[in-house]
Amino acid sequence: MDLTTHEFWALIHGVILGGAFLLAFSGGLAGFYGLRPGWVTREGLHERVRRLTLGTTAMAALVWFTVISGTWIVYPWYREETADSPKSLLLANPDTKDWHEFAMEWKEHIAWIAPMLATAAAFIVLYYRDDLIKNQTARKIAMACFIGAFVIAVIAGLLGALITKKAPVS
Amino acid sequence: MEARANDLKPSGPVAAVLLASGIGGVVLAGLTIAAESSESFANSLAYDLEVGPLSGKTIWAAAAFLVSWGALTAALRKRDMNLGTVGIVAAVLIGLALIGTFAPFFQLFAPE
Questions:
Q1: Domain range list for chain A
Q2: What are phi and psi of B35, to 5 degrees?
């Protein structure tokens, strides 16, 4: 039942931060969707924006932590120049080399677009706060950034999970 | 709850963060393509030997995002921008970033 340091950080990067990220996304998306004039009372608006601020800020922070921990902590173990590193194992077999050459090469780059979009979404909410309901263009753009960040993170997360299944960092 | 546009804060800072996210993405894509096409350039981005060229690509992309966000905020903070147009420009930049970071695309630039 013990985890090595490598497995522990792979768990933090892929499961703990990823799970929290999904929770933050669900709350944030519901908040964005319902923030329309006529759908919210004046009394309810402040509480809804408070939760939206929390969800979007948490998601932005989580995505930054996820990409930084992935790139600077887990990735060096993946690409170690040893015969038994995940990258070496994947490249050694013609049947699995695409898991590195396509999946990992795509994942390691696309993932870094997500925190920038999530930060943009969080900033728009923090900037307008309760007035976001009055600017529906800004709400829609923030929601698009938020969903975009999520889709990109899901692509990277899914590829990471599949790569780990083939050649875990351990 | 509808309000006139002039009741709201200027949209310049929002335009700044949207454009900065696109600029950060495009810088990441540009560096990814350039590193793929030149091994010596890729090696020059390996500020951390264990992380390799990805260290330089991500540092410069994050720096481009933060610096352009700051500079654009300073330039646009009191201006009211058409957010619809800014959103389209940012979407185009993000689209270019997504294409440039798609492995089968940037691998086209690898030397024979």
A1: 5-166
A2: -70, -35
pTM of the model: 0.94
User: Which residues in chain A have their CB less than 8 angstroms from residue B51's CB?
Assistant: 71-72, 75-76
The boundaries of the domain holding residue B76 are 11-107
Rounded to two decimals, the ipTM of the complex is 0.94
pLDDT on residue B6? 52
Nearest CA in chain B to A116: B21
Domain membership flag for residue B4: no
Tell me the β-bridge partners of B52.
B48
The answer to whether the CB atoms of A113 and B101 lie below 8 A apart is yes
Which residues face A126 on adjacent strands? none
Number of domains in chain B: 1
Q: Is residue B6 part of a domain?
A: no
Confirm whether B27 is domain-assigned.
Answer: yes
Q: What is the dihedral of CA B24, A150, A25, A162, to 10 degrees?
A: -130
